[in-house]
Design goal:
Largest sheet: 8 strands, mixed
Distance between the termini: 43 Å
Number of strands: 16
Structural class: alpha/beta
Order of helices and strands: EHHEEEEEHEEEEHEEEEHEHE
Helix content: 10-25%
Strand content: 25-35%
Length: 260
């Protein structure tokens, strides 16, 4: 049965045309795998699957993800991160490297949805990394994701009873009705830089776009790995947000809308 694999141009450029064709033909692609983003099982014979290449200074590891979780892409990591955190799962190997491996390199997962606050719908983005986030220069263990955001001006929220304050300098870039990036202040240059950027513009619902246009801002909620999870419906997403807030595992801010 043909594999439903996506191999991006940048991944192809790294692994070469021959290996890319072998993957697409199913010669070296897995059947089932553990998604490198959400860590749940996937099957590239049944659902669209992205090839994700983690590249260190000397080593490269090919992993797989649900296409709904991550696009096919190249992720740069340090050699120490790659060698120290790669865990082999099962299956054949590709060029003597584990073909299904998960480095503990945090990737920011972003989910869009409408959140009801004080009787009004607000456009929201929920950000949850795929692994604990270590402070730059630190070696862990521990998860510094929320403390790092609090230092940037995000506020802890105990419940979703009120809209969080605006965080000036940050913004959400929406262009042609698609989500492109979350921007943060750019330091010395003064120009905004991407804190998170979509590999390919993300589609949002018409209701989300309408609410964003009405409020001219987007609520960003952030939680540590494992606090929210993949939620297929907005009501389940809201329940997960409420639980994370009640447990002291949620920060938030309102970000002005950039673009249209």
């Amino acid at each position: 049965m043909p594999r439903m694999l996506d191999v991006s141009d940048e991944v192809r450029a790294e692994i070469g045309d021959e290996e890319a064709e072998r993957l697409l033909a199913g010669a070296t692609a897995p059947g089932s795998y553990d998604c490198t983003s959400c860590r749940t099982p996937g099957d590239c014979e049944q659902e669209r699957t992205s090839t994700v290449l983690f590249v260190g200074e000397e080593t490269a590891v090919l992993a797989f993800a649900h296409a709904s979780c991550l696009p096919s892409q190249v992720v740069k990591v340090t050699e120490e991160q790659l060698r120290g955190a790669v865990r082999s799962i099962s299956g054949d190997t590709v060029d003597h490297e584990p073909e299904k491996a998960v480095p503990e390199q945090a990737v920011l997962g972003v989910t869009s949805g409408l959140v009801l606050i004080a009787g009004e719908l607000h456009p929201a983005l929920v950000v949850e990394p795929t692994a604990p986030v270590v402070r730059p220069g630190g070696s862990g263990p521990g998860d510094e994701f929320l403390p790092l955001l609090v230092e940037q001006g995000f506020l802890p929220v105990a419940d979703l009873a009120a809209v969080p304050p605006v965080l000036h300098g940050w913004s959400v870039l929406l262009a042609a009705g698609q989500l492109h990036a979350v921007l943060q202040p750019g330091g010395e240059s003064g120009r905004p830089v991407a804190w998170w950027q979509a590999h390919q513009p993300l589609q949002v619902t018409e209701g989300w776009r309408t609410a964003a246009g009405k409020h001219q801002q987007v609520l960003l909620f952030a939680a540590p790995v494992g606090a929210i999870g993949r939620q297929p419906r907005e009501d389940l997403l809201r329940d997960a947000l409420d639980k994370a807030a009640a447990g002291g595992r949620l920060v938030a801010a309102a970000l002005p809308l950039a673009g249209t």
